[in-house]
Amino acid sequence: MGEDGPVRKVWLGVGVSVGLSFSFVVLLVLGTYMVAGNARSGGSGGNVQLAEGTVPAAYMPLVQKHGNTCSAINPALLAAQLYQESGWNPKAQSPANARGLAQFIPGTWAAYGVDGDRDGDRDIWDPADAIASAAAYDCALAGQVKHVPGDPTHNMLASYNAGPYPVIKYQGVPPYNETQNYVQRITTLAKSFAAPTQPVASSEQASAAIYFAQKKLGTPYLWGGNGTAAQGGRFDCSGLTKAAYASVGIELPRVANDQWNAGLHPNRNELQPGDLVFFAHDLQDPRSIHHVGIYVGGGKMINAPYTGAVIRFDDIDTPDYIGATRVTEDGAKALPAPRDRAA
Hints:
- The chain is α+β, with helices and mostly antiparallel strands.
- The protein is built from twelve helices and six strands.
């Protein structure tokens, strides 16, 4: 369920009746699109900076530093790999015995693990060592395929997935669906960790997602609600955003903080209708996101706030606002499979 919990007390009601809501949202959407309609995105260049709030604060300087270890990687790409591997869980352990933040298996760690914090040991569970080692491993792979034509980052990622030999054999990303999908997924996911250097392009599906949410105004909140008939068509926060984007063919994860990386992160002054807006207990840790809504313009969102309330308009400028995501189909597809978690 959105990690909003069954009760959320910080929201300020905006006093807009459901009867007036349709005209209100239309005015907000039209006004905001008139202002932001010319926004365009562009490729990032130079020194890639991490977008604020996308990496837990404890790991941000490490990822920023080691993401510049070699030219085949950058901080956003390294962040995407770490998020894909462990979801920022330093204690993660897979059934295949992959361990820690970077999910090294012991044999690979023995060959490529480094003492990232220079404390005299190489600890597979220590994030400082794991992050440095992930970057070192990427760069070692890039070195092994450096003479292969094509994009060096794509070749490195393909080597990470399939091993260097197939990349050398096929002189580029090999024709394996799994490997090609991995390269596409990580390079797309990396965009959600990079601080935009230009205005983020508007979403083509945004207005239809808003239209879906708008029709649900006045519906009572239900913790865990997905809008099914058995649930009386009720939603919780992330159930509403998931359903809104599913109505335009974009499948988001079920939980709010898993939806955070489904696209790029526009600044507060660049928000456009349809952006997902997020709220967290700790503004320096995206793992603490507990609520999500759909921005409609004018500093307002449509959201399913908490038990006892109805789907309604609320202000987004509250102390726990962490940021926004401009959802894209590619961004949603690039997200890792949801991990087991408590509701």
